[in-house]
Amino acid sequence: MAVLLVAEHSNDALQPATLHAASAALKMGGDLHVLVVGKGCDGAAAAAAKVAGVTKVLVADADIMAGSLPENVAPLLVRLAPGYSHLVAPATTFGKNVMPRAAALLDAQQISDIISVESPDTFIRPIYAGNALATVQSSDAVKVVTVRTTTFPLAPAEGGSAAIEKVAAGEAAANVRFAGLESSRNERPELTSARIVISGGRGMQAGDNFKMLEKVADILGAAVGASRAAVDAGFVPNDYQVGQTGKVVAPELYIAVGISGAIQHLAGMKDSKVIVAINKDEEAPIFQVADYGLVADLFKAVPELAEELQRQNVSAR
Amino acid sequence: MKVLVAVKRVIDYNVKVRVKADGSGVDLANVKMSMNPFDEIAVEQAIRLKEAGVATEIVAVSLGIEQCQETLRTALAMGADRAIHVHHDGELEPLVVAKLLKAIIATEQPGLVIVGKQAIDDDCNQTGQMLAGLLGWPQGTFVSRLKLENGKALATREVDGGLENVELTLPAILTVDLRLNEPRYASLPNIMKARKKPIEKRTPAELGVDPTPRLKTLKVSEPPKRLAGVKVDSVAALVTKLKQEAGVI
């Protein structure tokens, strides 16, 4: 039996999340097939065929797949499922939207957001925003799994030469219409996929002061986040929020500025590889999880950080 | 139009979660429990639809142990009209919850179902999508903006790359994200009034659903502890460390 990975892509190329999920899928045993759905997604299918370890690519390229609506993608997955031991997708908003719908139609209890493949039927997944790890075993005939991309390496994008096969897209659901994307309001990377995140807390004192963080973010190619306290104080919109009730991030570098380190914030960022805390209160709990702590007034330290990064010729990778 | 909301009783988001020493789960004894924050947003949205004259009745549903009734009382105090409690003492996985909700929906016939996008205990993010699949209804997940008109829900979804719009023909399922609204606090008079609102009790057996979990939890463990690192004495030292020692910039 083979594993079917549902690709997230931008029509011309695969999203990195797909390559992270491919690493996890390769650990589940069997051949790895990739399903590419979309409209005008030949480029992504060609890219999928080159990924090391992929033995077959299925493409459903059709008008009805524009926007990859779960109402149209899930029935396709259900039709393909009998040939597979696992259906896998990255735990991005795409995978989270599509996979549970398919799982329910297959009468399978999905395993969300796995961080480890222990065996083909046993996985580790975070619960309580990562404050506990559950090892779970599935007895479903087809295992439906989404993968936390930050914990698996990128599969090599080159090295494979899989055959590409067309599959029928099926009928469009009549009760839903894709009405377009509004892209992000800024040029910065998205919080949950950024390599570096710089976040501000209540200590920022005002929304305007986030400009200091944006300056550092632009130098590093980082995303800008915030604690719940900063959001509740109205400094920044809710979609900046990192924490248990906001976004869970695990970048390579997380810089917490003026954030005390409430439990609910730590839950959203403590899996970051390297954590830096800048806070004037040396007793702040954030220092208990920080790899590098700087006890300083952020209004001095942050502009200085921007200057120092430029002086040491640091730029976005 | 009737709106159905599902609310889950979870550990309060401010409580520090402790893993039981025997690895069987998380310690829930004497821990403050609250309504799942995303479900509060679902309830709030339903109330706003009623205030706007779009919804006529709000039915809140909770599934699980006896104390779920407290969570339902909260929903009733916020403004739900009546409640249904599906009583079950064991664990309920999202697939089972979706099947139970489907059975309730078969008799309640709501025009819209609103749930939180995720519960902050198991973090599954599945129930709404599963329910939509089982019913064959369209789904709007992670909704941060909503407009109802001409029998359609225009939902703006928070996706990784920005915002996505979908147009759903009712009946439909919505799972809601943080930015949709700011849930209200129940006022004291409304809390008192909520005590008199009806809570109907059901069981999985009555609804014809087998609640047996599909996943076996072999172990629940603490994540690896982070050790506190070092304090640096200047911004220059910090940048040097990040470059040379950590290698992340």
Please render the helix and strand layout as text.
The complex is a heterodimer of chains A (317) and B (249).
Chain A: E1 2-6, H1 16-26, E2 32-38, H2 42-50, E3 54-61, H3 70-80, E4 84-90, H4 93-105, E5 111-114, E6 116-119, E7 122-127, E8 132-138, E9 143-147, E10 163-166, E11 176-183, E12 196-200, H5 210-220, E13 223-226, H6 228-232, E14 253-257, H7 263-269, E15 274-279, E16 292-295, H8 298-311
Helix pairs in contact in A: 3-4, 5-8
Chain B: E1 2-6, E2 9-11, E3 33-35, H1 37-51, E4 57-64, H2 68-78, E5 82-87, H3 94-108, E6 112-116, H4 127-135, E7 139-149, E8 152-159, E9 162-169, E10 172-176, H5 188-194, E11 199-202, H6 204-207, E12 215-221, E13 230-232, H7 235-245
Parallel strand pairs in B: 1-4, 1-6, 4-5, 5-11, 6-10, 7-10
Antiparallel strand pairs in B: 2-3, 7-8, 8-9
Helix pairs in contact in B: 2-5, 3-4
Notes on the protein architecture:
- The complex is a heterodimer of chains A (317) and B (249).
- Chain A has 8 helices and 16 strands.
- Chain A is of the alpha/beta class.
- In chain A, strand 12, helix 5 and strand 13 form a beta-alpha-beta unit.
- Chain A starts with a strand and ends in a 6-residue tail after the last helix.
- Chain B is an alpha/beta fold and 249 residues long.
- Chain B is globular, with a radius of gyration of 21 Å.
- The model of chain B has no long low-confidence stretch (mean pLDDT 96).
- In chain B, strand 8 and strand 9 form a beta hairpin.
- The termini of chain B are far apart.
- Helix content of chain B is 29%, strand content 31%.
- The interface between A and B is large, with 97 and 83 residues.
- Strand 16 of chain A pairs parallel with strand 13 of chain B, so a sheet runs across the interface.
